[in-house]
Amino acid sequence: MPQNNTQDREVPRISRQNTMHATILVGPSKACWTLPLDLLTHASPFFRAALTGNFLEAKTKTVTLPCEDPQIFEFFVHWLYTSRFPALTDAPSLVAEWDPQEPGGETKTHNLVHLHVFCDRYQIRTLRIKTMEELYVHMEDPALNTFLPDLEIVQYAYENLGDDEAPLCRFLVDAQCHWASSQSWGADDTGGWPLGFLTGVLRLYSVFAQGSGGRESYLDACDYHEHGDEGERKACEGVF
Ligand SMILES: [Zn+2]
Asked: Which parts of the sequence belong to the BTB domain (predicted)?
């Protein structure tokens, strides 16, 4: 499995008495969460710096994230407490917001991409990789008949990750080339696709046209797992 940048840090004992908490205010309405401080700082170097450094946030133990979506933040909180995504054993209302099981699975795709970007922004590496793993499975399973990420999702990923070589951006290119049909390219929206995305698609189709690889042969989940070395990748292969 992918390595965890927090693995060398001691797992926090949040069950102990009188554990310290931090307040996180999310979105324009300042939706409020009170969370165990150690849990937040263990998961995220961003929160560690903000809540234990010399910033005002560390003194007040309060961080404000006015531009974030409270719904996406709640999925992050769920993962903080459970180390997994919402599942059928969780509150039905949360499960419905995570994945209402509609044809094409667009809500879950949207949630995974937005949660991935959130984790990239706040340096939550473990969950960032897990969102990538889950998106791969979500897209790849023929039984789910998942729609390709649409223009809005691709724009959101490229604009917010700011790196054409980010694992999610590379996956969006690979997924497009792997599954798209000619109907996937409408004349109306062609100008909206990010330049880095279009360049990636053209480059990959050029490789196919020259006879190297093809639509059926190249998707490999480990390409998007941020493995540190070949040994780590070998240990992961076979799991996916
Ligand atoms: Zn892997």
From this structure: 40-87
CA of 174 to the centre of ligand 1 (A): 16
- Enumerate the domain spans of the chain: 1-107
Own/partner long-range contacts of 136-139 (Cβ < 8 Å, ≥24 apart): 136/171, 136/221, 136/224, 136/240, 137/221, 137/240, 138/105, 138/108, 138/109, 138/112, 139/109, 139/175, 139/179
| Beta carbons within 8 Å of 64's beta carbon, 6+ residues apart | 24, 25, 30
Supply the pLDDT for residue 4.
Answer: 46
Integer Cα distance of 134 and 113 in angstroms: 10
Gap from CA of 183 to ligand 1 centroid (Å): 32
Average pLDDT of the residues in 199-223:
82
Looking at residue 16, what is its pLDDT?
A: 85
CA of 129 to the centre of ligand 1 (A): 9
CA of 168 to the centre of ligand 1 (A): 14
User: Which three-class secondary structure state does DSSP give residue 236?
Assistant: helix
**Cα–ligand 1 centroid distance for 229 (angstroms):** 11
- Centroid of chain to Cα 3: 16
Q: Domain 1-107, CATH 3.40.50.300 — does that match? A: no
Q: Residue 105 Cα, ligand 1 centroid: separation in angstroms? A: 23
**What is the pLDDT at residue 214?**
65
Task: State pLDDT tens for residues 61-117.
Answer: 999 999 999 999 999 999 999 999 999 999 999 999 999 999 999 999 999 999 999
CA of 221 to the centre of ligand 1 (A): 6
